[in-house]
Design goal:
Two copies of one chain form a homodimer. In chain A, 28% of the residues lie in helices and 27% in strands. Chain A is an alpha/beta fold. Strand 13 of chain A pairs antiparallel with strand 13 (294-298) of chain B. Chains A, B: Its EC number is 1.17.1.8.
């Protein structure tokens, strides 16, 4: 059997991380990479990654996607270009129309039915017409605050209330994340950024809540989310961030899904630099009230960057094996690490 | 759409618990129950369960499976009759040949490929010939020490070593479990029981280890397990068990899966009455070394009885929806609680 052929669109932190992971695996080849960034376009991926090419075929980063992807040139394309479904749509459509399966890192694509049901239906239609499938995934949304919750409800006869809490550190992240999450801002500026929508915070609560609800058969009749500054009382410094005492060290996002007028799904997701400096310890926590109750914790939290990279790469076989159409994490078999030859995971 | 129709074979603690759960759900009917026990056969299930029948159709427990099940008389049969694949096989075959899907509680059926690959292949063939599917599941094997492990590896780029530990209390269980697990025995008698195979202990390590390994692409080249008495230093008393100081309060089972000559999967599963009396606190723990590391705990442990009941009932739609053949938990979408109408979970 031929190796599994993968293309990557977007060679930033996520796309290049996926390449790094794929290069260590058996039975899979990277056959093309598209990226517009002038520092990367035209260069060998091995050069950009700082990895010896060895026996592997050369891959030059090409800014023109139509040169990277021709019809059925590969089994799957990993699209690490966007956070929002609307922005990702034209790119995803282009790949599907070349009869290539897609995995998208766009947070909203983890459950596009939540906020863009028309686009979701359109993607499903295009995928089916072209005989391929498409999935959005990542660590969160994609696993920690949704699929893992769904999986744990599997051992329950009855569910009353769900709380998913992800307390993570922003310290490992770079300048772009510091800016997106408001690290180092004055509280007033932060609040203005929330009001005018320029601060994104975490994208994915609506997707996670709707994924859980649809999976277990609840109907969400209202969704709300809030974004508050985490104000530090001490100076905090991380490799790429600094928050002086009295300023913003991160963002505390909360969200609620209402079912029959009651809050049934609570999401709590504070992200900040150096959380330990004020006694906050990181972790992922799922508390499900019902029969029997389930109280899960993962300490420390699963690393967000590596987790997203792994989820996207590890789902490749499931997406290739799936029936044509738009898939979500609740439609496919459970994710799993791929320690053997990629080809043995593919059902031809 | 008609209600989903379920039959139950075996109306002990598990089978009757599934009936109790199903009676609270929408869009699903129990259409037949088979049980040989003279205290139950011939009686109404509502009478045995101590539940008001209300508007629901009468179901009389029938000791003759051929009267309970006629060809395609229901969508699925829950078989809660056995622990071992070899013993369950003739019963499972009978149900499949009536063109009815099956979920089995037999621990070994959670991954019959592990110890009975020929029977697994035979069941797969029979199921396909009859256009139906068959799954073995439960809380463990089925979720806690295997599927949940697999799911958590999904966020890892690389896995080095897996440890799954389930520390549970036997206090809620009845006299049969006390006997199976050796509670109250003298240490010498316990050791004789291990040697002559009359003490079963936990059934499922081989299944869990092989499920995990096959899921992530490891090849198990050796499997071992051990069974040691948990000797109490104080008198311990539970509703159905008693262990005097110096005697056996439960069983500590350990198992190892070797990959390339190294222990890669460790299973640790001490079960005892009143564990808190000597400072043991119950919980489910998964520790996966690799990138990134994952350290999960569920405290207290997920209730084994309710968990098994829920897993079997909650997997009904996935098994009905599956392609014909033998399925395992790693082939199907993630388990989930069913809080809505059962019919909405079925793809016709």
């Amino acid at each position: 059997m031929e190796n599994v052929k993968v293309a990557i669109w977007g060679f930033g932190a996520m796309g290049s991380g996926m390449a790094r992971m794929l290069l260590k695996k058996k039975g899979v080849d990277i056959v093309g990479v598209c990226d517009l960034h002038p520092e990367r376009a035209g260069r060998s991926i091995y050069d950009v990654l700082g990895i010896e090419r060895g026996e592997k075929p050369e891959v030059i980063i090409n800014p023109n996607i139509d040169e990277v992807l021709t019809e059925k040139c590969c089994d799957i394309c990993l699209c690490a270009t966007d956070s929002f479904t609307k922005n990702a749509f034209p790119r995803l459509k282009k790949v599907l129309e070349k009869k290539i399966n897609v995995i998208s890192t766009a947070e909203e694509m983890a459950y596009p039915q939540a906020q863009n049901p028309e686009i979701a239906a359109e993607l499903d239609k295009i995928a089916k017409e072209n005989g391929v499938s498409i999935l959005g995934t990542g660590i969160n949304p994609g696993l920690i605050m949704d699929l893992l919750v769904v999986c744990l409800t599997g051992c329950m006869t009855d569910v009353d209330h769900i709380e998913a809490k992800r307390v993570n550190s922003l310290s490992p992240f770079g300048p772009a994340v510091m800016e997106e999450q408001g690290v180092g801002m004055k509280v007033d500026d932060f609040n203005r950024g929330v009001a005018d929508g320029s601060l994104a915070g975490h994208v994915g609560f609506s997707e996670s809540i709707n994924m859980i609800a649809d999976a277990i058969g609840w109907k969400v009749d209202k969704f709300e989310q809030q974004m508050a500054p985490i104000v530090t009382s001490v100076d905090r410094k991380s490799p790429f961030g600094f928050a002086a005492a009295g300023d913003v060290a991160g963002v505390n996002m909360t969200g609620q899904g209402y079912v029959d007028g009651q809050v049934k799904i609570d999401m709590i997701h504070p992200q900040q630099i150096e959380p330990e400096m004020e006694g906050t310890f990181t972790g992922d926590y799922i508390t499900i009230k019902g029969t029997p109750e389930v109280n899960m914790s993962i300490k420390p939290e699963v690393d967000g960057g590596l987790g997203t990279i792994a989820m996207c790469v590890n789902m490749i076989p499931h997406v290739i094996n799936a029936d044509p159409g738009l898939k979500t994490m609740i439609d496919l078999p459970v994710p799993r690490a791929i320690m053997g030859d990629f080809r043995t995971f593919i059902k031809r």
